[in-house]
Design a protein that fits this description.
Layout (H helix, E strand, L loop, with lengths): L28 H7 L7 E5 L5 E5 L4 H16 L14 H14 L9 E6 L6 H9 L3 E7 L2 H13 L6 E5 L19 E6 L7 H10 L12 H4 L4 H16 L3 E8 L2 H14 L3 E9 L2 E9 L6 E8 L4 H12 L3 E4 L4 E6 L6 H10 L15 E11 L17 E9 L6 H18 L5
Parallel strand pairs: 3-4, 3-6, 4-5, 6-7
Antiparallel strand pairs: 1-2, 7-9, 8-9, 10-14, 11-12, 12-13, 13-14
InterPro entries: METTL16/RlmF, SAM-dependent_MTases_sf
GO molecular function: methyltransferase activity
GO cellular component, one term: nucleus
Length: about 450
């Protein structure tokens, strides 16, 4: 029996704005200025090859850069953000890359949970929580800063974007505390993750030395508050102290993450985290133009998600149809819980040879006794991912117009390796045998 894959995305109504919540790979500044007219005075006409004319932005002009980032936030994320001239202007693409890393490496550990993030040093722009409200589903934030003026502007930015239900702003009165969970008046006791973009420099001398040593270092004309650029001991001391605080807080924040500006700091911090007993460490490299930054995440919690990939099929909805038909035949209940996940509940290991022999001999639908109330032997999540297959250059296609097939993939998840992993592995092996014996493409 064929099963269709439920629609995973709600269609927009006619009056809803079309917001991508992402940046295009290449941005046409002229086209962007048509949607955000304040950018037009900063366009620099350029005569290209073969008579093609295009426009550029002078990135040494702080007003132009500030206006460009406001335009990106407004057009692509439907965010109206005030960026004061005396505060650090966040580069949207760079901040978005950090949030993408969080989404891929942290939020995937919590597929059915509401996320709660702590932003350390949010600044006047409150950029991470505002972007996070668009990029991370079901996520709320508490944003902290030590600067009263920055906090005031951040609150205004949250209010004018009508995100008070998702973002709280906290003025941290203690500059020595990076993670203020135990501060008087702090509203939250625990978080899914924290994120931080620490000041890179110890002082102006270090900033100038790094600028002279590296051609693509941040411009010395960058306008920012002192506490946004400098901290005693630089980022190395700042992050070392943050690591010490994380050890004390333990699992009250499941994942501690930070941006790292210097590769030397990355190595030092990883070594310290190992000595502090971090149970998981994850890192990533964020490249924007000629500049590289690193993201480091660590946790004092054992690995939460145990997952296996079940099958792939070169047909939209095919893997789901195959999987759902088999598990329902086994008496496993399937319930859709949101756009991305289904919950499967097995009351008995009906896929084992012993259970199937018992079922056959008793001629019943299940080997479990319906008169006995018992907890499920296995509860797991299932996700379906679909994407276009890579082009097969060896395929003989004289027309050259054939679209690549859709590959659908089924994955099964447990919250942790010790919550039914043996039963899930047993079911996984059964499904592999079904693929081998009957062919995954058979219906």
């Amino acid at each position: 029996m064929s099963q269709s894959l439920p629609d995973k995305k709600r269609r927009k109504t006619e009056n809803e704005p079309e917001v991508a919540n992402d940046l295009p790979e290449n941005i046409c500044y002229k086209a962007l200025s048509e949607k955000f007219s304040e950018l037009k005075p900063f366009l620099v006409p350029v005569q290209g090859d073969k008579g093609h004319n295009w426009c550029w932005i002078d990135f040494k002009d702080s007003r132009a850069v500030r206006t460009l980032n406001r335009a990106l936030l407004r057009v692509y994320f439907d965010l109206d953000v005030t960026l004061p001239e005396d505060s650090l202007c966040p580069k949207v693409a760079n901040r978005l890359n950090y949030l993408r890393w969080i989404k891929c490496n942290i939020s995937s550990d919590f597929p059915l949970e509401l996320l709660k993030g702590l932003d350390i040093g949010t600044g006047a722009s409150c950029i991470y929580p505002l972007l996070g409200a668009r990029v991370l589903k079901d996520c709320s934030f508490v944003a902290t800063d030590i600067n009263e003026e920055s906090v005031s502007v951040a609150i205004a930015n949250v209010e004018q974007n009508k995100l008070l239900d998702k973002i709280q702003i906290y003025l941290n009165p203690n500059k020595k505390v990076k993670l203020p969970l135990d501060n008087p008046g702090f509203s939250s006791n625990s978080f899914t993750f924290c994120m931080c973009n620490p000041p890179f420099y110890a002082n102006e001398d270090e900033r100038e030395a790094l600028r002279n040593a590296k051609a693509d270092a941040p411009s010395l004309t960058t306008l920012a508050k002192t506490d946004e650029l400098f901290t005693e001991g630089g980022e190395e001391k700042f992050l070392s102290e943050m690591a010490d605080e994380s050890k004390v807080l333990g699992d009250r924040i499941v994942w501690y993450t930070t941006m790292v500006g210097k590769k030397r700091t990355l190595g030092i911090l990883k070594a310290k985290l190992v000595s502090l007993g971090a149970k998981q460490i994850r890192e990533g490299t964020l490249v924007q133009g000629r500049t590289s930054r690193w993201v480091l995440g660590w946790s004092f919690v054992d690995k939460r998600v145990f997952s296996v990939e079940v099958c792939k099929m070169d047909r939209s909805g095919g893997a789901w149809s195959w999987f759902k038909g088999i598990v329902e035949e086994l008496g496993i209940a399937v319930e859709q819980v949101n756009e991305e996940y289904w919950k499967c509940t097995a009351m008995a290991m009906t896929w084992t040879r012993r259970a199937r022999r018992q079922k056959k001999s008793r001629n019943t639908a299940s080997c479990a006794d319906p008169g006995l109330a018992r907890p499920p032997i296995l509860t797991f999540l299932v996700s379906v991912a679909e994407k276009k297959a890579e082009s097969d250059v060896s395929r003989d296609d004289s027309s050259g117009t054939a679209a690549p097939p859709i590959v659908s993939t089924i994955s099964m998840y447990l919250k942790s390796e010790d919550e039914g992993s043996r039963a899930l592995c047993s079911l996984y092996n059964f499904l592999l045998r079904k693929q081998r014996d009957g062919g995954v493409n058979a219906q």
